[in-house]
Amino acid sequence: MITNTELEYKGDLFPSKIVSFEQDVDSIYFNTDNNVILKITIFRDSLIRFRYTTKGYFSNDFSYAIDKTQSHGYNQLEVIEENAFYLIKTSKVFCKVNKKDMKISIHDIDGFTILEDEIGFHWEESYEYGGNIVKMSKQSKDGESFYGLGDKPTHLNLKGKRVENWATDQYAFHKDQEPLYKVVPFYIGLHHNKAYGVFFDNTFRTFFDFCHERRNVTSFWAEGGEMNYYFIYGPKMSDVVETYTHLTGKPELPPMWTLGYHQCKWSYYPESKVKEVTSKFRELKIPCDAIYLDIDYMEGFRCFTWSKEYFPEPKRMVAELAKDGFKTVVIIDPGIKIDKDYWVYQEALKNDYFCKRADGPYMKGKVWPGECNFPDYTNPAVREWWAGLFKELISEIGVKGVWNDMNEPAVMDVPGKTFPYDVRHDYDGNPCSHRKAHNVYGTQMARATYEGVKRFSYPKRPFIITRSAYSGAQRYTSSWTGDNVASWEHLWIANIQMQRMSMSGMGFTGSDIGGFAEQPSGELYARWIQLGVFHPFCRTHSSGDHGEQEPWSFGKEVIDITRKFVELRYQLLPYLYTMFWQYVNEGTPMLKPLVYFDQDDFHTHYRTDEFLFGKQILVCPILEPNAQGRRMYLPKGNWYNYWTNELVDGKRELWVNTSFDQIPIFIKEGAIIPKYPVQQYVGELQFDELTLDVYYKLGKEKSTVYEDAQDGYDYNKGRFSLRTFNATGKEKELIIQQHREGTFETSYSKFKINLMGLPFKVKKIELDNEKISLEQVQFNGGNFLIIDKDFAELHIIGS
After folding, report:
1. Secondary structure of residue 513 in the 3-state scheme
2. Domains, the chain, ranges and CATH?
3. What is the overall mean pLDDT for the chain?
4. How many CA atoms lie within 13 A of 286 on its CB side?
5. Quick one: average pLDDT of 526-545?
């Protein structure tokens, strides 16, 4: 028998009419006669939070994603009551709240509609778990495009896609597979040349539909929790991404060695094999800064132990590797082996630090060590204990970085490959089930690891890498995209994933170069290296089940290509370090898809291959075998072909010839690109000269170079060097002005200036208002000159 009450509560429920509202400083509360409350909070004139409850009161307001150290503020807030709606105005947007049904519309100050509800907020009661399934649908505008959502292995433009957010161990995933390891419920919408963002801060399993089910409707929903989202107005994509990154937090600067090339495999053991690999890098003169130890370095896969057979003296080995310029990075997983004689297990058991099932037993699952229990990293006491476990690894043995894997969390041989829903978590004093904590488990593990490594690395900077992450994880850790495959499809996927991660606030990311599963051809590996050196995190990693994957595994031609491109990365380290400084300080993504660079050009909206590396280098990888070149799109502006120095006009598609040892790389006209000499590892050389590649432009262009001690925290005390170069090109003159901030003194004293594309023959040079001879700057009629690094103004004058 079905009663009327049961019928009444089946299906979707909706807010009814608004019966009252009140304002409390920056927040406005709207109440309906069926107990729904909408709280609208103004963070900035362009950043508004929408939070709904259906029970007449709000639960404790807590988020792991929001960076509470960041400040916000608005210039204007006005609330006006009209007959049919309430109007909330800031200096950037105004928001209408319909009195009849609580539907929302958001407009720019000219009245143009940016985003508006379709059905709007609605919900469905969850009889199985309690609480609600919360839903939101928005109207999609004509020609609207969508970007973001983290490392989704699908087209950069998400129009027509449906995606799922549930951190999942997806070994050998494929194109368009859902879900993957990371959860970043943030997207960017773009229509009529105006961009906005939506961050749905809900840690339950979430879904986004970008006009997949209904062609003019975008929707997002969660299997529990609140409808709680942030609206960010641009109108530029850069405004949206920078505001989102500010909201969820930015990392501290990494040590420069982490931006070098890294080598990894599952697994390098014993010690003699590790030494063989590192020695080969030095013998072949392929630069490399870090060597990784996977799970086989442990005693029976027990975290915080060393295999006595494979690594009998880890402290000595790590010190010897360091002497040869290699930092050692080790893996740590969340599964703690159930073993009464294992000290880590004993401590966790004694202090009740493991996750429990609903009825009291500890969560038990099989991972690499066998049967394991799992720490509850959402408990502050557990994070503090976990941080303390790194003392021996970091401060005594000398390990420089830690790599967190399997932290989705991944569990073998069970349906769903993770914890059951009934596992309980502390959630920083907000007790919940695994349904809510699952997507943040990996981030909180990485956070605890970061706190430990930072504590015991001090005064040096920590380095953490994680596989699983939720929005805000970038405050603690870098990441990689998990167990990819040695295939051309995955080379395309890796390119997309890095661009998307950069736009999603998690810039310090890379893929397993060459593919983790299966075996690449030499051609595929070379093409992947050529792309990977332009990703913020650059590491070859592979499964030991599928053969050798070191650069020398593919013959001399691939060795030479690898060396050539890794050397280019090391030359560009000051440029890359400056990119990172801009990301840390401004929230600027390090990689920029073409649509980010020029959203007004419709041709960029569906481009996937080309991207900006920093602000002035355009990269287009070769993604198919047997290629002698490729078609690509050059965005607005004029660009120098890096290999030929030919100047090419942009905003068009063109064919670019390339050989096997090249990919299309273009430099923005007017750019000044800093370069270090080639080193085998960061800090190997003391050098007296910084190279500046200057690309002539008729007009003006600004470039920056950020430098500091490359590690440590003195940069927070002003010990950094920030050089701003303003280049002005005229028909017969090039003027370069330099402005410098900070107190750090670089080791070099001179600039070697390489002049590219000058349309005139150099006749004379003026340096800081003084005429100097060409011999004084070692100008030999070629294209370079050498001057003191502290110049203020340089004039290069033609005849």
Report:
1. strand
2. 18-248 (2.60.40.1760), 686-798 (2.60.40.1180)
3. 97
4. 26
5. 97
**Under 8 Å between Cβ of 286 and 563:** yes
Whether 408 sits among the annotated catalytic residues: the reply is: yes
The Cα 427–Cα 355 span in angstroms is 11
Edge-to-edge, what's the strand order for the sheet holding 665-668?
591-593, 611-613, 617-619, 665-668, 638-641, 647-649
Written as six digits, the tokens of 240 are 């949206």
**What single letter denotes the amino acid at residue 763?**
K
Instruction: Say whether the peptide bond before residue 361 is cis (omega within 30 degrees of 0).
Output: no
- Torsion angle of C-alpha atoms 481, 483, 485, 486, degrees rounded to 10: 80
* Residue located via tokens 């932290």: 407
Share above pLDDT 70 across residues of the chain, in percent, rounded to a whole number: 99
Which residue among 226, 289, 405, 707 is the active-site one?
405
pLDDT (0 to 100) of residue 10: 60
CA 495 to chain centre: 13
Residue 719 is encoded by which pair of tokens? Answer: 């010990």
Active-site annotation holder among 483, 512, 567, 707: 483
Query: pTM of the full predicted structure?
Result: 0.97
pLDDT, tens digit, for every residue of 183-228?
999 999 999 999 999 999 999 999 999 999 999 999 999 999 999 9
Dihedral (Cα; 55, 56, 62, 67), 10-degree rounding: 120
C-alpha 333/C-alpha 614 separation (Å) is 33
Tally of CB atoms within 10 A around 555: 9
Closest CA to 212 of 174, 133, 155: 155
Determine the residue type at 236: K
SS percent in the chain: helix, strand, coil, step 5: 25, 35, 45
Mean pLDDT of 610-626: 98
How far from 738 is each of 187, 575, 709, 769, 796, CA to CA, in Å?
38, 16, 21, 13, 14
Helix (H, G, I), strand (E, B) or coil at 589: coil
Is 352 part of the annotated catalytic residue set?
no
As a whole number, mean pLDDT of residues 732-736 equals 98
Q: Three-class SS string for 722-790? A: EEEEEEEEECCEEEEEEEEECCCCCCCCEEEEEEECCCCCEEEEEECCEEECHHHHCCCCCCEEEEECC
Tens of pLDDT, residue by residue over 47-74, are 999 999 999 999 999 999 999 999 999 9
The pLDDT of residue 55: 95
Options 45, 144, 408, 707, the catalytic residue: 408
